[in-house]
Amino acid sequence: MTWVRAPQVAIVLLSCLIGTAALTAQRPDAYTASRDHPAIRYSTGTVNTSVSRLNHDLEAGSVHLTFDKAAGYLPSLLTALNLPPESQLLVFSETSAQASLIKPTNPRAIFFNDTTAVGWVRGASTLEIAAQDPRQGTIFYTLPQAPTDKPRLSRQQSCLECHLTWDTLGVPGMTMISTFPMSDDKNAYATGVTVDHRTAIDLRFGGWYVTGKTVPVRHYGNLPVIRSEGEVGKPPPVAPVLPSVAGKFDPAGFPTLYSDVVAAMVLGHQTHMTNLLTRLGWEGRVAEFEKTSEQKATASRLQDAVKDVVDYMLFVDEPTLPRKLEGSSGFAEKFAALGPKDSRGRSLRQFDLEHHLLRYPCSYMIYSPAFDSLPAPVLDAVYRRMWTVLSGQDTDKIYGRLTAADRTAIIEILRDTKKNLPAYFQVVSR
Q1: How many angstroms separate the CA atoms of 207 and 214, rounded?
Q2: Element of type H or E holding 176
Q3: How far apart are CA 311 and CA 293, in angstroms?
Q4: Could you give the 3-state DSSP secondary structure of residue 137?
């Protein structure tokens, strides 16, 4: 699910392969051992994903996928994997392995929940699926878009050519990329930025449709990526405001007419959070397996990885939104309703969208199987680091983003909703 302009596929695949090879170097903020280390066994270990469970149910006959004339297995697969149509995001930059089919009049649709994402291109021969295993990280699959009595989703290792890089922290994962405007010269190549919740809004959404009742004034979405040389050199125009994508292309096969700005913001947070959790889990398992004379260096790597997870989970580097955002697909309402809620009706899925993404700055991914499956000593270290920050013991100015009210609310919500939360998480006055 990597996004590149079709004429530049060879260039970008080469950069992906170079990035993969470079993972043999020692980099402090990413996993650098083999994905097939005995403690990991990514290629051969048992997996437990939404897709592996679906394959089991398909084989048993307890679940069936039906083939739709316009969208193939997409509608049925979304239901089977519990992916809400409201999460639909539309990418029109000529990217992914199906780049030759993608254009503004035939965008690629992405649907997601907390653990799984599906990519669909109208007219393509396969559906692409990424699903999170709590221990192994992101596993990639395809489903042929041809009717059969027994459809089955097949695992694909080739996706790692672009989904195992420094941008994914050295583990198999997903990225959300904003593609910057590029010349229509045949020798031009794409540039952009990997997006997460720390990315400035005006750098986001290049190559994506963005819809909503209120969207950022400045961003790269809803505008052509490939432009004439003269246009590329000019200041970017203001992106069109699109309540929906009605009239932009033939909607046949698409579940909705939206590419919701709130869904895009959530996916930007979630991709990097997922990769951080995978990387931390892998570091912890390798350290526990090896227990070598390098324990001091390993402990330092783990300590840094724990801090990275906690800081990102608590949104300490999130910039302030330039204006209030409001979607139009119904995604925000559906996402927020998932909870869990505390005794006062509060949830870590509640949105702010006026100043920041979430009302309470702690990631809902703390409820994910990937978080709960961290090795016990690592999970303990994460909780202790969280408490050091939330209790106010760490007075570093970077934590000024967390007000006393924020910290109190997060602690109270977690005490009501998070199983096995350490008893030392108590409300503090400072």
Answers
A1: 19
A2: strand 176-179
A3: 29
A4: strand
pLDDT block averages, 10 residues each, the chain of length 430: 34 34 60 95 96 98 97 98 98 84 96 98 97 97 97 95 92 94 79 95 96 94 88 84 97 98 98 98 92 64 94 97 96 97 98 98 98 96 97 95 96 97 84
Is 262 inside any structural domain?
A: no
Looking only at the bridges linking them, the beta strands covering 182-183 and 226-227 are: parallel
CB atoms within 10 A of CB 54: 23
The H or E element containing residue 80 is: helix 74-80
155 belongs to a structural domain: yes
Work out how many domains the chain is built from and give that number.
1
CB atoms inside a 10 Å sphere around CB 37: 15
Domain of 55, in residue numbers: 6-232
Residue 189: how many other CB atoms lie within 10 Å: 14
The answer to whether position 56 is within a domain reads yes
Sign for the CA dihedral angle at 108, 89, 114, 177 comes to: positive
With CA atoms as reference, report the closest residue to 167 among 266, 27, 47. Answer: 27
Residue 13 lies in a domain: yes
Phi, psi of 341 (to 5 degrees): -110, 150
Contact yes or no for 131/115 (Cβ under 8 A): yes
Rounded Cα distance between 151 and 143, Å, is 8
Q: Do the beta carbons of residue 392 and residue 408 sit within 8 Å?
A: no
